[in-house]
Design a protein that fits this description.
single chain, mainly beta, Jelly Rolls, six-stranded antiparallel beta sheet, four-stranded mixed beta sheet
Amino acid sequence: MEFVTPRPTAKGPAEWFTGDVRWDVLAAGAAPSRLRFNLVRFAPGARTHWHAHAVGQTLHVVSGTALIGTRDGTVFEAQPGDTVSCPPGEEHWHGATADRFMAHHALWEATGDGTPETTWAEPVTDAQYAEPARTRRPPQ
């Protein structure tokens, strides 16, 4: 067993994010582990670009209200304590509301076979971000 030495907080690159995003790597497993676990903080209005994870992603909201958008135009709102699972290969985005900071834990896995764990696409447009049709939770 060992304590992990924390890495410095990193700024999210403009190639992946709109607005000010910072993250701390909490765990990056070494083989055979494929675990990835970050604390990600979004300034008001900040968001990821469209992306998909080869093995899926789990988001656990820590503070603020998270917005999570899907390609069909749905934008879900998640509150602190909510956990959202994004299936493998599903293109999505996530970020903060326009007026509040938001932080979430992001968990995903490397593929283990050299395939990229995350595939990044184009930025989320202001119209997609401001989509008025928001729902608190996906239907059960």
